[in-house]
UniProtKB/TrEMBL annotation:
Lineage of origin: Archaea, Methanobacteriati, Methanobacteriota, Stenosarchaea group, Halobacteria
Subcellular location(s) of the protein: Cytoplasm
Domain GHMP kinase N-terminal: 57-147
Protein name as catalogued: Shikimate kinase
Pathway(s): Metabolic intermediate biosynthesis; chorismate biosynthesis; chorismate from D-erythrose 4-phosphate and phosphoenolpyruvate: step 5/7
Catalysed reactions, semicolon-separated: shikimate + ATP = 3-phosphoshikimate + ADP + H(+)
Primary enzyme class: transferase
ATP-binding is among the record's keywords: yes
Record's GO cellular component terms: cytoplasm
Family annotation (InterPro entries): GHMP_kinase_N_dom, Ribosomal_Su5_D2-typ_SF, Ribsml_uS5_D2-typ_fold_subgr, SK_arc
Keyword vocabulary terms for this entry: Amino-acid biosynthesis, Aromatic amino acid biosynthesis, ATP-binding, Cytoplasm, Kinase, Nucleotide-binding, Transferase
Coiled coil regions, renumbered to chain: none
Statement: the UniProt record of this protein carries the keyword Cytoplasm: yes
Recorded family membership: Belongs to the GHMP kinase family. Archaeal shikimate kinase subfamily.
Gene (name only): aroK
Length: 283
């Protein structure tokens, strides 16, 4: 019983750490999971190219999926990823979604299970192993469903979802920042600004929403605002992604290419990509 699936990474419109509401958009970079089920319980996880990384998230995803939709089988799970880990680009959501879908594929029920329900299994696994603050249903839903989503993570409620077709520039500094280490109390201080960003996002004004989000959360979590200032006013929106350190910008491709030249003077990597509206899928 083998299953295989892929799920996209995502960038931030609104970080949910301040007021519980969040918004994210899927991008064209993927994590793939391969699951082999066995009759005995116990799950062994492996992350390609990262032998020391924490495999509990993907192991818990297999356990929850076989508990709810199979007979509690164990097995092995292996992920391969184009998404830098703990960089604000939702590597955890992509890994969880790919693993849940690959497990459902191995159980031969992937087409019967609603995608939002499958996504919530990954959110539950992330809460169980402590890699998230709010559950990150914003990031998980964007990765599972594709497009841009707005969610209430306190209620695990999808408030809005739409397909979008944006060019996206990503800047990834060489450092890592794990969500579980974020200074949540400082983020909560900017809740009134986060509420404003949620209103802008629900109004479809995603570009302005993400720019306001980026300045506010960069201040709260003490990340530099230089990349955003170098991108404005040429782009439609620019923000610190998640709990950082990556920065994402959306807008006209030519303008993004100009911003890329400026960002290339910084340490780390830049890449041009697009939004992704199909979401996760079995392979
Ligand atoms: N490819 C992967 N395979 C398995 N687990 C992963 C993978 N990528 C990320 N994770 C899990 O997600 C955690 C990082 O999550 P987080 O700090 O929220 O970063 P991000 O912003 O990239 O989602 C890792 O410690 C690991 O548990
Ligand atoms: O753990 C969490 O609850 C969250 C982590 C952040 O994302 P990253 O995991 O990308 O840092 C944030 O953007 C999201 O809204 C909520």
């Amino acid at each position: 019983m083998n299953g295989r699936a892929e799920a996209p990474a995502a960038g931030t419109v609104l970080n949910a750490l301040a007021c519980g509401k969040g918004s994210a958009f899927a991008i064209d970079a993927y994590t793939t999971a391969e699951v082999t089920l066995a009759d005995e319980p116990g799950v062994e996880g492996e992350i390609d190219g990262a032998p020391d990384a924490d495999t509990r998230l993907i192991e818990r995803c297999v356990e929850l999926a076989t508990d709810r939709h199979g007979d509690g089988q164990g097995g092995t799970v292996r992920t391969e990823s184009e998404v830098p880990m703990a960089s604000g680009l939702k590597s955890s959501s992509a890994a969880a979604n790919a693993t849940v879908l690959a497990t459902l594929d191995a159980l031969d029920v992937a087409e019967e299970i609603d995608r939002e329900e499958a996504c919530l299994l990954g959110v539950e696994a992330a809460r169980d192993v402590g890699v998230t603050v709010t559950g990150a249903f914003d990031d998980a839903s964007a990765s599972m469903l594709g497009g841009v989503t707005v969610t209430d993570n306190d209620r695990d409620e999808l408030l809005a979802r739409e397909s979008v077709d944006w060019d996206v520039l990503v800047y990834t500094p060489p450092e890592q920042a794990f969500s579980a280490d974020a200074d949540v109390e400082r983020c909560k201080r900017i809740a009134p600004i986060a509420e404003l960003v949620a209103e802008l996002a629900l109004d479809g004004r995603y570009g302005l929403a993400m720019t306001v989000n980026g300045f506010a959360f960069s201040a709260a979590m003490e990340f530099p605002t230089g990349p955003a200032v170098e991108a404005l006013p040429d782009v439609a929106g620019v923000s610190l992604s998640g709990t950082g350190p990556s920065v994402v910008a959306v807008g006209d491709r030519k303008a993004l290419q100009g911003v890329r030249e400026r960002w290339d003077n910084r340490r780390g990597t830049t890449w041009l990509t697009t939004t992704q509206s199909r979401g996760a899928r079995t392979r």
